[in-house]
Amino acid sequence: MALTKQQIAQRIAQELQDKWYVNLGIGIPTLVANYIPEGIEVEFQSENGLLGMGPFPVEGTEDADLINAGKQTVTVLDGGSIFDSATSFSMIRGQHVQLTVLGAMEVAQNGDIANWKIPGKMVKGMGGAMDLVASADNIIVAMMHTNKRGESKLLKKCSLPLTGVGCVTKIVTNLAVLEIKDNAFHLLERAPGVSVEEIQEATEGTLIVNGEIPEMAI
C-alpha cells in the first residue's frame, strides 16, 4: 500500500542523527518535525530566520507571528532563536546545515531537481531553494512517485526548469526509498505491500534493483 504524506515524513525522520541541524522545505518536509526519533536532539532551521523549530501547533494554540518559510504556523522549542534572513542564509551558505529535506516536482537519475516552477503558471520566485541545493551535501527529497496523471516524476532527465544540478542524494516517495548514485536510482526499500514491479513501472529513469528489497519499517 502506498504511503501517506505523513508516513513519508515518518520514514525520512529515521534518517535524522543526533545534534544535526536540519532544514525542512515546504510541503511534506515540514511534517518531519513531528516524528523525531526518541533519544536524539535535532535543531530544525527555517530559512526565514528560525532555529529550534518544533512540531506544528495544536489547533487553537497557533501564534500568527511564528511561521516557517511556507507561511505555516509553527512552534519554537525552548532555547530556539529568531533572526534575520541574512543570518539564516549565512548559516545555509556556510554549510552549517547537515541535512536538507525538500519537496520536488521532478528528480532526474543524475540528481537534478526541479521544484520551483511550472512554465505558464504564476510563481513568486525560487525563494531559498537555490541556496539550499547549492550549499547542502546531504539532500533528501520527499515526493509522490507519480503525478496526478500517473506519470513518473523520477525521470531520465527533468523537463521542468531546474532548481539544482546533481545535488539530490536520496528520495523517499509514497512507493519507495531510493538512493541516487552512478547516474541511476538505486532501490533501497519499498512501501509495505508494494512490489518491485510496481516501482519499476512507476519509474521512468534507470532503476537498479540488487537482491531482495525489504519493506520500509514505519
What would you note in describing this structure?
With 218 residues, the protein is of the alpha/beta class. The protein has one domain: Glutaconate Coenzyme A-transferase, CATH 3.40.1080. It contains four helices and 13 strands. Strands 4-3-2-1-5-8-10-11-12-13 form a ten-stranded mixed β-sheet. Strands 7-6-9 form a three-stranded mixed β-sheet, with no helix packed on it. A hairpin with a 4-residue loop joins strand 6 (106-108) and strand 7. The longest helix has 9 residues, at 5-13. The chain is globular. The chain starts with a helix and ends in a 10-residue tail after the last strand.
What does the secondary structure layout of this molecule look like, with pairings?
Blueprint: H1 5-13, E1 21-24, E2 43-46, E3 50-53, E4 76-82, H2 85-93, E5 99-103, E6 106-108, E7 113-114, H3 129-135, E8 139-142, E9 154-155, E10 170-172, E11 176-181, E12 184-190, H4 196-201, E13 207-208
Parallel strand pairs: 1-2, 1-5, 5-8, 6-9, 8-10, 12-13
Antiparallel strand pairs: 2-3, 3-4, 6-7, 10-11, 11-12
* CATH topology-level fold name: Glutaconate Coenzyme A-transferase
Overall pLDDT, averaged?
Answer: 92
Give, in spatial order, the strands making up the sheet with the most strands: 4-3-2-1-5-8-10-11-12-13
CATH architecture: 3-Layer(aba) Sandwich
Short description:
Keywords: Transferase. Helices cover 14% and strands 24% of the residues.
Give a quick set of tags describing it:
218 residues; alpha/beta; Glutaconate Coenzyme A-transferase; 10-stranded mixed β-sheet; 3-stranded mixed β-sheet; 4 helices; 24% strand; globular; CoA_trans_fam_I; NagB/RpiA_transferase-like
